[in-house]
Each structure stands twice: as structure tokens, then as C-alpha cells.
Specification:
Strand order of the largest sheet: 1-10-7-6-5-4-3-2
CATH topology: TIM Barrel
Structural class: alpha/beta
CATH class: Alpha Beta
Number of domains: 1
Order of helices and strands: HEHHHEHHEHHEHEHEHEEEHEH
Number of helices: 13
Distance between the termini: 21 Å
Largest sheet: 8 strands, parallel
Shape: globular
Radius of gyration: 17 Å
Length: 300
């Protein structure tokens, strides 16, 4: 059965949409700093059903609910490090259970363990600025235990996502090289097509391209309107498969913790992204199963 890396070189793979988006649509309150991590602990069945909905819509990659899971965040609600490691592993297990419930097997659908940025654990919107004030060494030390736990959890790939800065791309890439596990690296960009720190997208792709088991380089959690141009930059910087899973087009107001503005249909853009070189296409925040179904239909 093909690996995800092989599938991305052979054709188009549809990714899922926003896990938190769907859980909120199902009536779950994700307003705490734990976000989906709370449901991994308190209602794992809800998370599994959300993954199942995306598989039913045509997604063939489920990204686990581990994005915002951190040792510090869960220590605040009484969990020790071993319990957090168990929760990280459980996030992958839940996605695998959903794949089985959907009647899919490894090789025709894949489970990606979400590795969010340091800013996601802060729950203050700093993943959209990258302004952490941390060195590469400090970021490596912070990411190291969580990456190790997720690498041991049995996912098909680690989904390093929403990375806003060169320092964090460098830090995570160095840790991944030591772990020797398959991973994709996806960054988030601003309206100017640069990383959220204003740094070079091409340079970020170049750093990630050095990974011995790189599955893909991509973009996520960004405005869909800039994706086509950014794909051109990525394609010129690396020969790795490219993937994109942007937001709906609405804007996140971190200070008010709400979305504003109008979204757009990503299905209208999906074929253009494919033609621009993307072989993995899905959605992130505010993109639900109906939109993923439309993307899958548009891509045939």
C-alpha cells in the first residue's frame, strides 16, 4: 500500500478541514485555552465523529486533534507529563479509529499527527506573528518532548503546521532530522506572501527541504487569496510535493477571539492550486465537511 509521500507524487490527495471548526458547529465550546485538547480528554467520541465526517466528505488525510496540546497547558488543569503523552498518543488513535469506521485502510487514507507552533500553546494568537522572543535552541527544547511523543504514536506522518517564523522552521526541522520520521512542514503566511514574521517563504521551504524524510512542504491557516502566488514561490524553492489548506477567507481577531469578514468557496480555487503544483489540498479554520466535499468533487 502506498505511503502518503508516494500518493502525493502520483496524484491529488484531499486533506480534511478544520477540526475545531466542525466541533464548534456540533455545539462544543472551544473557548478555553485548551481548545480541542479539552475534548480529547473529556469527549473523545466527539473528536472521532468529526474525523469520520471528513472521511465521509472525501478527505483522505485526517489531521489529529493534538495541535494545541502542550505540557504547560494541560499541567494547568492537573495533568502530568505522562498523562499528556498519553493524550497525544490518544489523539492519533482516535483518528485511526475514525479511518477504520469509515471503511478505509492505511494506504488509501492516512493519519497525520498535528504538531502546532509554540504560539498555539500560548493561545494568544502569537502563531500569527511569530513574536515569541525565543532562540532556535529554546524552541528545539520546547518542541522536543512533544515531537518524540507524537513520533511514537503510530501516525503515518507528522503534520508540522501553522509555523510562522524561520526560527521555528529551523528548530522543528532539526528535531525531526534527529527523530528520522516522515513529516510535512507547513507554514502560515501574511497578505504579503511572507512568513508572519516578514521572513522569506522560499528560505523556509529550503530549510524544510533538507529533511531526509520530508513528505511535503505547504501552506495553511492563511488567506486563500494568496495561495496561488505562494505556490509559485514554493515550487521554485523545492522539488518536494506541495500541499495547501488555507482558511475560509475570514479574518481572525485574536484580541476579540472571533472571526470577521466573508469567506469564499475553496472549491472554486482548488483546480487552480492543483495546476499551480499542489498535490495535497484541503482546508483549515472555518472550512467544514461540505467544503471538503466540494473540493473533492472539483478535483475529480
Amino acid at each position: 500500500m502506498p505511503t502518503l509521500a508516494e500518493a502525493l507524487t502520483r496524484g491529488i490527495v484531499v486533506l480534511d478541514g478544520g477540526l475545531g471548526t466542525l466541533l464548534e458547529a456540533h455545539g462544543h465550546d472551544l473557548s478555553s485555552h485548551l481548545w480541542t485538547a479539552r475534548l480529547l480528554r473529556d469527549d473523545p467520541g466527539a473528536v472521532r465523529r468529526a474525523h469520520e465526517a471528513y472521511f465521509a466528505a472525501g478527505a483522505r488525510v485526517a489531521i489529529s486533534g493534538s495541535y494545541q496540546v502542550s505540557y504547560e497547558g494541560l499541567a494547568a488543569v492537573g495533568l502530568d507529563r505522562s498523562e499528556v503523552d498519553a493524550l497525544l498518543s490518544r489523539s492519533v488513535e482516535i483518528a485511526r479509529e475514525a479511518r477504520a469506521a469509515a471503511g478505509l485502510e492505511s494506504g488509501e487514507a492516512w493519519v497525520a499527527a498535528s504538531v502546532g507552533p509554540y504560539g498555539a500553546a500560548r493561545a494568544d494568537g502569537s502563531e500569527y506573528t511569530g513574536g515569541y522572543g525565543m532562540t532556535v535552541a529554546e524552541l528545539r527544547a520546547w518542541h522536543r518532548p512533544r515531537l518524540a511523543a507524537l513520533a511514537a504514536a503510530g501516525a503515518d506522518v507528522l503534520a508540522v503546521e501553522t509555523i510562522p517564523s524561520l526560527a521555528e522552521v529551523e528548530a522543528i526541522s532539526a528535531e525531526l532530522a534527529d527523530l528520522d520520521v516522515p513529516a510535512w512542514v507547513s507554514v502560515t503566511i501574511g497578505d504579503d506572501g511572507m512568513l508572519r514574521t516578514g521572513e522569506s517563504l522560499a528560505e523556509a521551504a529550503g530549510i524544510a527541504a533538507s529533511l531526509p524524510r520530508l513528505v511535503a512542504v505547504g501552506l495553511n491557516c492563511c488567506d486563500p487569496r494568496g495561495v496561488a502566488d505562494a505556490l509559485g514561490v514554493l515550487g521554485a524553492a523545492t522539488d518536494a510535493p506541495l500541499l495547501v489548506y488555507p482558511n475560509s477567507g475570514e479574518a481572525w481577531r485574536a484580541d476579540e477571539r472571533r472571526w470577521s469578514g466573508a469567506g469564499r468557496s475553496l472549491a472554486d480555487d482548488a483546480t487552480a492550486w492543483r495546476d499551480a503544483g499542489a498535490s495535497g489540498i484541503g482546508g483549515c479554520c472555518r472550512v467544514g465537511p461540505e467544503e471538503i466535499r466540494a473540493i473533492a468533487n472539483a478535483l475529480g
